[in-house]
């Protein structure tokens, strides 16, 4: 059996700084903290961090609510006060630092402002901008794009579209679409994601 690693919370925090979404950042912090040794000496840290992980995951997966945000806040407040060591206090401190109410509320409403939580975004093709070049079709490794490349003297095309059930949201198609006809929309409401 492999031994659990000794975790330095400041190192995790530094690694997490490159993550754009505050919710994902917080989940990374808690996940990494829990992947290390957990002494379990104080209740708010040992139980609270597990509960925070579940609630952060719910928000990222589009199943979260304002209650999750309040409970994450409560957990972090309690951990900050009651943790007996610096590790627990640091996790709480960074969770509170990243608990941007607006961003967390957006997740509870089904939207990720950083456009990185895959469960909350969809890729769509804007037909009026699509030049039917077929580049996206070639780029998609998951056969999620259907459509016919334009040919001279032919009519009655099958327009390009993304089959949502096959799309893994890798973003490869957006990178190759020169006319910027592929956009990100909120998965739940179908509206373009605001940057
Ligand atoms: S705060 Fe420190 S001492 Fe308390 S459970 Fe967490 S890691 Fe252990
Ligand atoms: S790459 Fe863009 S323009 Fe070309 S077919 Fe795909 S969506 Fe249309
Ligand atoms: S995001 Fe990835 S899987 Fe989805 S349609 Fe584009 S290339 Fe295919």
Description:
It is a single chain. The protein is mainly alpha-helical. The protein folds into two domains: 100 residues, Up-down Bundle (de novo design (two linked rop proteins)); 69 residues, 2-Layer Sandwich (Alpha-Beta Plaits). The strands form two sheets. The protein has a two-stranded antiparallel ribbon. Strands 2-3 form a two-stranded antiparallel ribbon. The chain is elongated and about 75 Å long. The protein starts with 8 loop residues before the first helix and ends in a 9-residue tail after the last strand. The model has no long low-confidence stretch (mean pLDDT 91). One iron/sulfur cluster binds next to helix 9. The site of one iron/sulfur cluster (SF4) has 14 residues, from helix 8.
